[in-house]
Design brief:
The structure is a homodimer. The first copy, chain A, is about 60% helix and about 5% strand. The first copy, chain A, has about 150 residues and is mostly helical. Chain A has a domain at about 1-65: Arc Repressor Mutant, subunit A, CATH 1.10.10. A two-stranded antiparallel ribbon of chain A has the order 1-2. In chain A, helix 4 (about 75-80) crosses helix 6 (about 100-120).
Chain lengths: ~150, ~150
Protein backbone atom coordinates (compact mmCIF):
# COMPACT_ATOMS: atom_id res chain seq x y z
CA UNK A 1 0.00 0.00 0.00
CA UNK A 2 3.03 2.23 0.03
CA UNK A 3 3.64 4.43 -3.00
CA UNK A 4 6.83 3.58 -4.88
CA UNK A 5 9.91 5.81 -4.76
CA UNK A 6 9.26 6.51 -8.42
CA UNK A 7 5.86 8.05 -7.59
CA UNK A 8 7.33 9.95 -4.66
CA UNK A 9 10.01 11.51 -6.89
CA UNK A 10 7.45 12.21 -9.65
CA UNK A 11 5.25 14.14 -7.24
CA UNK A 12 8.24 16.05 -5.86
CA UNK A 13 9.33 17.06 -9.36
CA UNK A 14 5.82 18.30 -10.18
CA UNK A 15 5.69 20.27 -6.92
CA UNK A 16 9.12 21.78 -7.66
CA UNK A 17 8.06 22.78 -11.18
CA UNK A 18 4.82 24.22 -9.85
CA UNK A 19 6.72 26.31 -7.31
CA UNK A 20 9.12 27.57 -10.01
CA UNK A 21 6.63 27.94 -12.80
CA UNK A 22 7.90 31.29 -14.03
CA UNK A 23 11.15 29.78 -15.34
CA UNK A 24 12.55 26.63 -16.87
CA UNK A 25 14.45 24.56 -14.35
CA UNK A 26 17.15 21.95 -14.89
CA UNK A 27 17.42 18.43 -13.54
CA UNK A 28 20.65 19.55 -11.85
CA UNK A 29 18.75 22.17 -9.85
CA UNK A 30 16.13 19.68 -8.63
CA UNK A 31 18.84 17.11 -7.88
CA UNK A 32 20.71 19.61 -5.70
CA UNK A 33 17.68 21.11 -3.95
CA UNK A 34 16.05 17.75 -3.13
CA UNK A 35 19.30 15.76 -2.76
CA UNK A 36 18.02 13.09 -5.16
CA UNK A 37 20.42 11.36 -7.57
CA UNK A 38 20.46 12.83 -11.07
CA UNK A 39 20.09 9.35 -12.60
CA UNK A 40 16.85 8.69 -10.76
CA UNK A 41 15.53 12.12 -11.71
CA UNK A 42 16.34 11.67 -15.39
CA UNK A 43 14.21 8.54 -15.51
CA UNK A 44 11.39 10.29 -13.64
CA UNK A 45 11.46 13.39 -15.85
CA UNK A 46 11.67 11.32 -19.02
CA UNK A 47 8.46 9.54 -18.04
CA UNK A 48 6.68 12.70 -16.85
CA UNK A 49 7.49 14.17 -20.27
CA UNK A 50 6.23 11.09 -22.06
CA UNK A 51 2.98 11.28 -20.07
CA UNK A 52 2.66 15.00 -21.03
CA UNK A 53 2.79 16.34 -17.46
CA UNK A 54 6.12 18.03 -18.20
CA UNK A 55 7.51 19.81 -21.27
CA UNK A 56 11.25 19.63 -21.92
CA UNK A 57 13.37 21.88 -24.08
CA UNK A 58 16.93 20.86 -24.93
CA UNK A 59 20.00 23.01 -25.52
CA UNK A 60 21.32 26.21 -23.91
CA UNK A 61 18.60 28.04 -21.97
CA UNK A 62 16.59 24.82 -22.07
CA UNK A 63 15.09 22.96 -19.17
CA UNK A 64 11.78 21.59 -18.03
CA UNK A 65 8.49 23.10 -16.94
CA UNK A 66 4.90 22.01 -16.36
CA UNK A 67 3.14 21.17 -19.60
CA UNK A 68 -0.25 22.38 -18.33
CA UNK A 69 -1.53 24.60 -15.53
CA UNK A 70 -1.24 23.02 -12.05
CA UNK A 71 -5.06 23.20 -11.81
CA UNK A 72 -5.23 20.66 -14.64
CA UNK A 73 -2.78 18.15 -13.15
CA UNK A 74 -4.87 15.74 -11.19
CA UNK A 75 -3.25 13.65 -8.41
CA UNK A 76 -5.33 10.57 -9.25
CA UNK A 77 -4.25 10.82 -12.88
CA UNK A 78 -0.56 11.17 -11.92
CA UNK A 79 -0.54 8.21 -9.53
CA UNK A 80 -2.51 5.94 -11.85
CA UNK A 81 0.37 6.19 -14.36
CA UNK A 82 3.41 6.49 -12.06
CA UNK A 83 2.42 3.35 -10.12
CA UNK A 84 3.44 0.58 -12.50
CA UNK A 85 1.24 -1.84 -10.55
CA UNK A 86 -1.87 0.23 -11.31
CA UNK A 87 -1.01 0.48 -15.02
CA UNK A 88 -0.64 -3.31 -15.21
CA UNK A 89 -3.55 -4.10 -12.92
CA UNK A 90 -5.39 -7.17 -14.08
CA UNK A 91 -9.01 -6.30 -13.41
CA UNK A 92 -11.02 -9.49 -12.94
CA UNK A 93 -12.86 -10.15 -16.20
CA UNK A 94 -16.27 -10.77 -14.71
CA UNK A 95 -17.62 -8.47 -12.03
CA UNK A 96 -20.36 -10.91 -11.21
CA UNK A 97 -18.88 -11.87 -7.83
CA UNK A 98 -21.25 -14.84 -7.47
CA UNK A 99 -19.54 -16.59 -10.38
CA UNK A 100 -16.00 -16.19 -9.03
CA UNK A 101 -13.86 -18.22 -6.65
CA UNK A 102 -12.62 -16.77 -3.33
CA UNK A 103 -9.31 -15.46 -4.76
CA UNK A 104 -11.07 -13.64 -7.59
CA UNK A 105 -13.74 -12.25 -5.25
CA UNK A 106 -10.94 -10.87 -3.06
CA UNK A 107 -9.39 -9.28 -6.18
CA UNK A 108 -12.70 -7.62 -7.03
CA UNK A 109 -12.99 -6.15 -3.50
CA UNK A 110 -9.38 -4.94 -3.52
CA UNK A 111 -9.88 -3.41 -6.96
CA UNK A 112 -12.98 -1.67 -5.68
CA UNK A 113 -10.94 -0.18 -2.80
CA UNK A 114 -8.22 0.99 -5.22
CA UNK A 115 -10.89 2.75 -7.25
CA UNK A 116 -12.03 4.57 -4.08
CA UNK A 117 -8.38 5.54 -3.43
CA UNK A 118 -7.91 6.98 -6.92
CA UNK A 119 -11.34 8.64 -6.96
CA UNK A 120 -10.39 10.46 -3.75
CA UNK A 121 -7.13 11.65 -5.31
CA UNK A 122 -9.09 12.72 -8.40
CA UNK A 123 -10.59 15.44 -6.15
CA UNK A 124 -7.16 17.09 -5.74
CA UNK A 125 -4.92 18.82 -8.26
CA UNK A 126 -1.30 19.93 -8.11
CA UNK A 127 -2.68 23.45 -7.55
CA UNK A 128 -4.34 22.25 -4.32
CA UNK A 129 -0.96 20.92 -3.17
CA UNK A 130 0.78 24.21 -4.03
CA UNK A 131 -1.78 26.72 -2.78
CA UNK A 132 -3.59 26.99 0.53
CA UNK A 133 -7.21 28.15 0.71
CA UNK A 134 -8.54 26.00 -2.10
CA UNK A 135 -11.93 24.32 -2.04
CA UNK A 136 -10.16 20.94 -1.79
CA UNK A 137 -8.65 21.85 1.57
CA UNK A 138 -12.01 22.82 2.96
CA UNK A 139 -13.34 19.45 1.81
CA UNK A 140 -10.56 17.59 3.62
CA UNK A 141 -11.01 19.58 6.80
CA UNK A 142 -14.73 18.98 6.74
CA UNK A 143 -14.32 15.22 6.27
CA UNK A 144 -11.71 14.96 8.99
CA UNK A 145 -14.01 16.76 11.41
CA UNK A 146 -16.98 14.57 10.53
CA UNK A 147 -14.94 11.32 10.76
CA UNK B 1 0.16 0.93 -3.97
CA UNK B 2 0.74 -2.78 -4.21
CA UNK B 3 -0.04 -4.89 -1.15
CA UNK B 4 3.01 -6.59 0.37
CA UNK B 5 3.63 -10.32 0.04
CA UNK B 6 3.04 -10.51 3.79
CA UNK B 7 -0.52 -9.20 3.36
CA UNK B 8 -1.11 -11.48 0.38
CA UNK B 9 -0.07 -14.55 2.41
CA UNK B 10 -2.09 -13.39 5.43
CA UNK B 11 -5.25 -13.12 3.32
CA UNK B 12 -4.59 -16.53 1.73
CA UNK B 13 -4.16 -18.15 5.16
CA UNK B 14 -7.44 -16.61 6.37
CA UNK B 15 -9.24 -17.81 3.22
CA UNK B 16 -7.77 -21.31 3.68
CA UNK B 17 -8.87 -21.43 7.33
CA UNK B 18 -12.33 -20.14 6.39
CA UNK B 19 -12.66 -22.86 3.75
CA UNK B 20 -11.57 -25.55 6.27
CA UNK B 21 -13.33 -24.16 9.29
CA UNK B 22 -14.64 -27.52 10.53
CA UNK B 23 -11.15 -28.77 11.43
CA UNK B 24 -7.81 -27.51 12.70
CA UNK B 25 -5.26 -27.26 9.92
CA UNK B 26 -1.48 -27.30 10.07
CA UNK B 27 1.03 -24.93 8.55
CA UNK B 28 2.38 -27.94 6.60
CA UNK B 29 -1.00 -28.39 4.90
CA UNK B 30 -1.25 -24.73 3.86
CA UNK B 31 2.39 -24.76 2.73
CA UNK B 32 1.76 -27.76 0.48
CA UNK B 33 -1.61 -26.66 -0.90
CA UNK B 34 -0.51 -23.08 -1.69
CA UNK B 35 3.15 -23.93 -2.48
CA UNK B 36 4.33 -21.20 -0.06
CA UNK B 37 7.50 -21.73 2.02
CA UNK B 38 6.86 -22.95 5.57
CA UNK B 39 9.17 -20.28 6.99
CA UNK B 40 7.14 -17.46 5.45
CA UNK B 41 3.90 -19.03 6.66
CA UNK B 42 5.17 -19.42 10.24
CA UNK B 43 5.86 -15.69 10.43
CA UNK B 44 2.45 -14.90 8.92
CA UNK B 45 0.55 -17.27 11.24
CA UNK B 46 2.47 -16.05 14.28
CA UNK B 47 1.31 -12.49 13.56
CA UNK B 48 -2.26 -13.47 12.68
CA UNK B 49 -2.37 -15.23 16.06
CA UNK B 50 -0.93 -12.20 17.85
CA UNK B 51 -3.58 -10.00 16.20
CA UNK B 52 -6.30 -12.48 17.32
CA UNK B 53 -7.50 -13.39 13.82
CA UNK B 54 -6.25 -16.95 14.30
CA UNK B 55 -6.19 -19.32 17.28
CA UNK B 56 -3.34 -21.82 17.54
CA UNK B 57 -3.19 -25.01 19.59
CA UNK B 58 0.14 -26.78 20.03
CA UNK B 59 0.86 -30.49 20.39
CA UNK B 60 -0.58 -33.64 18.77
CA UNK B 61 -3.96 -32.97 17.19
CA UNK B 62 -3.16 -29.27 17.39
CA UNK B 63 -3.22 -26.78 14.57
CA UNK B 64 -4.72 -23.42 13.72
CA UNK B 65 -8.21 -22.17 13.01
CA UNK B 66 -10.07 -18.87 12.76
CA UNK B 67 -10.41 -17.16 16.12
CA UNK B 68 -13.80 -15.63 15.24
CA UNK B 69 -16.53 -16.21 12.66
CA UNK B 70 -15.56 -15.14 9.12
CA UNK B 71 -18.42 -12.61 9.26
CA UNK B 72 -16.49 -10.77 12.00
CA UNK B 73 -13.15 -10.63 10.17
CA UNK B 74 -13.14 -7.36 8.32
CA UNK B 75 -10.81 -6.90 5.30
CA UNK B 76 -10.06 -3.28 6.22
CA UNK B 77 -9.10 -4.34 9.74
CA UNK B 78 -6.82 -7.12 8.42
CA UNK B 79 -4.99 -4.92 5.92
CA UNK B 80 -4.57 -2.03 8.33
CA UNK B 81 -2.45 -4.30 10.55
CA UNK B 82 -0.72 -6.56 7.98
CA UNK B 83 0.55 -3.55 6.01
CA UNK B 84 3.45 -2.38 8.17
CA UNK B 85 3.38 0.97 6.34
CA UNK B 86 -0.20 1.64 7.49
CA UNK B 87 0.62 0.71 11.10
CA UNK B 88 3.54 3.15 11.08
CA UNK B 89 1.79 5.85 9.06
CA UNK B 90 2.73 9.28 10.27
CA UNK B 91 -0.52 11.19 10.04
CA UNK B 92 0.19 14.91 9.63
CA UNK B 93 -0.32 16.54 13.03
CA UNK B 94 -2.46 19.41 11.84
CA UNK B 95 -5.29 18.78 9.42
CA UNK B 96 -5.63 22.47 8.77
CA UNK B 97 -4.23 22.26 5.24
CA UNK B 98 -3.91 26.05 4.97
CA UNK B 99 -1.19 26.04 7.64
CA UNK B 100 0.95 23.36 5.98
CA UNK B 101 3.66 23.41 3.33
CA UNK B 102 3.21 21.66 -0.04
CA UNK B 103 4.78 18.34 1.11
CA UNK B 104 2.53 18.16 4.16
CA UNK B 105 -0.54 19.09 2.16
CA UNK B 106 0.27 16.25 -0.24
CA UNK B 107 0.56 13.90 2.77
CA UNK B 108 -2.86 15.00 4.00
CA UNK B 109 -4.44 14.30 0.58
CA UNK B 110 -2.71 10.89 0.30
CA UNK B 111 -3.80 10.01 3.82
CA UNK B 112 -7.34 10.99 2.92
CA UNK B 113 -7.21 8.61 -0.08
CA UNK B 114 -5.85 5.78 2.11
CA UNK B 115 -8.79 6.29 4.45
CA UNK B 116 -11.15 5.89 1.48
CA UNK B 117 -9.30 2.69 0.53
CA UNK B 118 -9.63 1.21 4.02
CA UNK B 119 -13.22 2.40 4.45
CA UNK B 120 -14.13 0.56 1.25
CA UNK B 121 -12.49 -2.62 2.52
CA UNK B 122 -14.33 -2.14 5.83
CA UNK B 123 -17.51 -2.96 3.86
CA UNK B 124 -16.26 -6.51 3.17
CA UNK B 125 -15.63 -9.43 5.52
CA UNK B 126 -13.84 -12.73 5.07
CA UNK B 127 -17.33 -14.27 4.80
CA UNK B 128 -17.98 -12.12 1.71
CA UNK B 129 -14.78 -13.48 0.16
CA UNK B 130 -15.75 -17.07 0.99
CA UNK B 131 -19.43 -17.05 0.09
CA UNK B 132 -21.25 -15.85 -3.01
CA UNK B 133 -24.64 -14.17 -2.78
CA UNK B 134 -23.81 -11.81 0.06
CA UNK B 135 -25.07 -8.24 0.24
CA UNK B 136 -21.49 -7.05 -0.32
CA UNK B 137 -21.36 -8.64 -3.76
CA UNK B 138 -24.57 -6.96 -4.79
CA UNK B 139 -23.05 -3.66 -3.67
CA UNK B 140 -19.96 -4.20 -5.81
CA UNK B 141 -21.97 -5.23 -8.86
CA UNK B 142 -24.23 -2.21 -8.48
CA UNK B 143 -21.27 0.18 -8.21
CA UNK B 144 -19.50 -1.34 -11.18
CA UNK B 145 -22.62 -0.98 -13.30
CA UNK B 146 -23.16 2.63 -12.24
CA UNK B 147 -19.48 3.56 -12.81
Amino acid sequence: MRLTRFTDYSLRVLIYLGQNNDSRVTINQISQDYDISKNHLMKVVSNLTRWKFVAAQRGPGGGIQLNRPAEEINLGEVISVTEKYLRELDVPGSHDADQLNADSRLSVFLHHALQAYLETLDCFTLADVLKPNSEAHKLVQLNVEVA
